[in-house]
Design brief:
The protein is α/β, with parallel strands linked by helices and 493 residues long. The chain contains 16 helices and 24 strands. The protein has an 11-stranded mixed beta sheet, with helices on both faces. The protein has a 6-stranded mixed beta sheet with strand order 17-18-22-19-20-21, with helices on both faces. A 5-stranded mixed beta sheet has the order 1-5-4-3-2.
């Protein structure tokens, strides 16, 4: 594609140099540049992203043939100067890859918790029904049954649009995508033609980035306001909203799409009744606009009832029958790192969960409390260089629900892990039942060695992640593998 074609996408811009050069790809990471690429210099976000203008020369050395910038860098290569490089990047990426989201139906999920599980539920129901599906989110990108790892939840436009194009090339009919608040605020999903937007819930998270809860809420809300105002006979837009969440009315008012609701406590279009929660799974009666049916779910916890309801609602809108939904859900296994049981034959239960927010931790622990016969032992920490205000809140929650709490490191990054642990302890009403073990490996081993028959260990915070960020290095680390190894050693004694 010629640079001049890209230039014509933008009304307000200034061009320097030869616009007839051929662009072979788009990058915003100078280290990943290939010959003939266009390098886009996005501005920095303090504490989160570096200013890519600083790496323009590196990009040229690595083979970039042209730049998109927000200022004249004085570099003698074809350059398009724009007011907003992030907005330009979304437009350029979408055009370069041929508007791929128009070739499939796109279902997006946003909310503080439940995005990954809900996306897996939707993906399974649709694929079991016979549709060809793709998946984008925290656990990776699925294209044509192959799963590729990702470093962030909602990807930057050049990568996101490239993956959508690859899905389109193998005739994917549906893509189910997790949409984060940061991704929305950074406009990573601009150019994506969503048919359905799903809201799971809204509780405290990412305040280190957004600053206030209201700004966090507004970022999520922008997803629903972007669904468009036009009504057409073949292109209905849906906003699937959790009627039980306090932010429901705000989201309902802001969207022009048709609102379909789900919930447990309040009146909704899709509801769960007679909920039975056990350590093995969940059963409830589903009542909705399509009828009524019993649902058996191999996932534990009331919060997973909400995730199931969100997934059921989205797939009902795509014409999947209640009987097919019931069958698909009955065959659903646990989602990687989401209330996932680690079992090598021990006499107590070990659960690994991604819970890294106050609401998610309370959901996990309150669920465990409902079926616990022995003691509850919780192992968790909080991420460094992230929202500090949630640390004491999570400490209080862990303290409230657990018989023993082992505070450890999560991803401390460049923060002192001891200081993070102290922030967590400060929220505890009764810190006497609390141990502090900085090394996460040792903390998991300690929990397993003090557990007895019928106890439940919750290892929270990292879930599916297979790494740990310590200072400026990333090491391989998998909670499940550490737990399995410790359990195996215990059984040998």
């Amino acid at each position: 594609m010629k640079l001049i074609e890209i230039s014509k996408l933008l009304t307000i811009k200034r061009t320097i140099g030869n616009m007839n050069v051929e662009i072979t790809g788009i990058q915003m990471d100078s280290r990943k540049i290939e010959k003939g690429n266009l390098f886009i210099c996005t501005p920095g976000i303090t504490g989160f992203l570096e200013d890519r203008h600083h790496y323009a020369n590196d990009a040229i050395k690595n083979g970039a043939i042209a730049l998109v910038t927000e200022k004249d860098l004085g570099i003698d290569v074809p350059t398009i100067i724009v007011n907003d490089a992030r907005y330009a990047m979304a437009i350029i990426s979408t055009h370069f890859y041929g508007y791929p989201s128009l070739d499939m139906k796109l279902i997006g999920i946003t909310g503080t918790n439940g995005k990954t599980t809900t996306s897996y539920i939707i993906d399974k129901i649709l694929s079991d029904y016979g549709y060809k599906t793709g998946l984008m989110g925290n656990n990776g990108v699925k294209i044509n049954h192959n799963v590729y790892p990702t470093d962030i939840n909602t990807q930057e436009p050049p990568i996101l649009q490239r993956h959508l194009r690859k899905m389109a090339e193998v005739n994917t009919e549906y893509c189910v995508m997790e949409v984060s608040s940061q991704g929305l605020d950074m406009r990573r999903v601009l150019g994506c033609h969503f048919q359905t937007a799903i809201f799971t819930n809204l509780t405290q998270d990412h305040l280190d980035y957004h600053g206030t809860f209201e700004a966090y809420r507004d970022a999520k809300a922008s997803f629903f306001s972007r669904l468009g105002n036009a009504f057409t006979p073949k292109n209905n837009k849906y906003a699937v909203l959790n009627a039980d969440d306090p932010s429901y009315e705000f989201f309902r008012r802001i969207t022009p799409a048709e609102v379909i609701t789900y919930g447990i406590s309040k009146k909704a279009d899709v509801t769960a009744h007679n909920i039975l929660l056990t350590s093995k799974g969940t059963r409830f009666i589903l009542k909705c606009f399509a009828g009524e049916i019993d649902i058996d779910l191999n996932l534990v916890g009331r919060f997973n009832v909400y995730n199931a309801l969100a997934g059921i609602t989205a797939t009902l809108l795509e014409g999947v029958s209640l009987s097919d939904i019931k069958k698909s859900l009955s065959e659903l296994s646990s989602v990687d790192g989401r209330m996932e049981i680690v079992n090598v034959g021990q006499e107590f239960l070990v659960i690994v969960d991604y819970a890294h927010t106050p609401d998610a931790l309370e959901n996990a622990l309150s669920t465990i409390k409902e079926f616990a016969k022995g003691k509850i032992i919780t192992v968790f920490g909080c991420g460094g260089n992230r929202d500090k205000t949630k640390r004491p809140v999570m400490g209080k929650i862990a303290n409230q629900y657990s018989d023993t709490v082992i505070i450890t490191s999560d991803n401390p990054r460049t923060e002192d892990p001891v200081s993070i642990i102290e922030d967590i302890r400060n929220g505890m009403v009764n810190p006497n039942n609390c141990l502090s073990i900085v090394n996460r490996d040792e903390a998991i081993v300690k929990a397993i060695n003090i557990a007895t028959k019928d106890d439940i260990i919750l290892i929270a915070g990292k879930g599916h992640e297979k790494y740990q960020i310590l200072e400026n290095k990333t090491i391989q680390f998998d909670d499940k593998e550490i737990a399995k190894k410790a359990l195996s050693e215990l059984l040998k004694k």
